[in-house]
Amino acid sequence: MKNIAIYPGTFDPITFGHIDVIKKSLKFVDKIIVGISNGNQKNFLFSMEERINIIKKALFNDLKLPRNKITVITFSSLTTELCKKYNSNIILRGLRAVSDFEYEFQLAGMNRKLNNKIETIFLMSDVENQIISSKFVKEIAQHKGNLKKFTTTSTIKSLKEKYD
After folding, report:
1. Cβ(104)–Cβ(133) under 8 Å?
2. Ranges of each domain in the chain
3. pLDDT 10s digits, 102-126
4. Can you give the pTM of this predicted structure?
5. What strands lie across the sheet with 4-9, from one edge to the other?
């Protein structure tokens, strides 16, 4: 049986923190479904279609990660429903700091209540990427700061196009 993991998020935009989670999980799962959600936010910088394209360029063009092991999709359902659809019992979540833990712990508990066959696996980004958030990346881009330490070349290009 294949180990398929769901990595849900808004990815507005994808950062090296997200990419760390993907790279690390490739060591122990057979396939990752990167699920892009519109979440509860209303003010995304990038549309759903733009986020799909940005993620695919970042993962497959910039980083040359294996296309056969990663699928990028959109979803508007509960993550547990996405797990059912893709026959997955693993949800991947990234942790940056202690402040993330309480929310993520509650979310994992709720997902477990919805489907007790699902396990949430928490992965830490590498130390140099633990401070990165999409929110800060957008703010740096808006003020024309240097983004090379935070995200991929193609993602930087997309951010510059939005703010120029």
Report:
1. no
2. 4-163
3. 889 999 999 999 999 999 999 988 8
4. 0.94
5. 70-75, 31-37, 4-9, 90-95, 119-124
Comparing CA positions, the residue from 56, 7, 13, 1 lying closest to residue 34 is: 7
Establish how many alpha carbons lie within 13 A of residue 81's alpha carbon, considering only the half-sphere containing its beta carbon: 6
Strand 4-9 relative to strand 70-75, pairing: unpaired
- Alpha-carbon gap, residue 128 to 19, rounded angstroms: 13
For residue 100, pLDDT over 90 is answered with no
Looking at the structure, give the CATH architecture of the domain made up of residues 4-163.
3-Layer(aba) Sandwich (3.40)
Catalytic residue among 42, 64, 143, 148: 42
96 is an active site residue: yes
Q: Please spell the DSSP secondary structure of 100-147, one letter per residue.
A: HHHHHHHHHHHHHHH-TT-EEEEEEPPGGGTT--HHHHHHHHHTT---
42 is known as an active-site residue: yes
Q: Which of 25, 125, 134, 154 is catalytic?
A: 134
Structure tokens at 82: 């996405």
pLDDT in tens, 22-69: 999 999 999 999 999 987 767 899 999 999 999 999 999 999 999 999
The one catalytic residue among 23, 56, 84, 96:
96
Ramachandran category for residue 39: left, alpha or beta (phi over 0 → left; psi -120 to 50 → alpha): left
